[in-house]
Amino acid sequence: MAAGDISGDGRPDLIVACPDPAALVLHVGTAELDGALAPADPRNINPGSVTYAVAVGDIDADGLVDLVLAVGAPNVVRVLYGTGAGAFAAPVDLRVTFLATALALDDLDHDGAVDLAAASGSWLSILRGRRVGCPE
Questions:
Q1: Strands, DSSP E only, in 13-81?
Q2: pLDDT for 97-117, tens place per residue?
């Protein structure tokens, strides 16, 4: 589960990874200021595989929210680049050296670009971000 303005309306939303069936379920934040969430959005996002973790951030520096998924495919972290208003482009797979089960997005090396950390147990991969474009 991760929080962020996925729908592009200026309010925080929650995205929840559901393993069976494999889906990402979006709960859009309501206009109320009490932290309420709308019921699951019917535009559930198909991740293409079981998802163990999800991270929300703007990894390509285009001003739109992107989703990063730790999926059931070995050695893959899946990126869904945001196209606006809660919609996403076709998935792009990035290579890691293990089956990731945890993700974090932050500017880990303080260069102004969002980096991706993927982990599983004692294994850790850092994919360094670029100021424009996906992590390397």
A1: 13-18, 23-27, 51-57, 66-71, 76-80
A2: 899 999 999 999 999 999 999
For 27-31, 66-70, 119-123, which range has the lowest pLDDT when averaged over its residues? Answer: 27-31
**Lowest pLDDT segment from 1-5, 43-47, 67-71, 86-90:** 43-47
CA separation for the pair 12, 84 (Å, rounded): 15
Could you tell me the two tokens for 53?
A: 């973790």
Average of per-residue pLDDT across 14-23: 80
Which of 62, 82, 60 is CA-nearest to residue 6? 82
The dihedral through the CA atoms of 88, 50, 68, 52 has a sign that is positive
- Please state, in angstroms and rounded to a whole number, the distance separating the CA atoms of residues 98 and 107: 22
The one-letter amino acid at 39: P
Chain length of the chain: 136
Rounded Cα–Cα distance for residues 31 and 19 (Å): 29
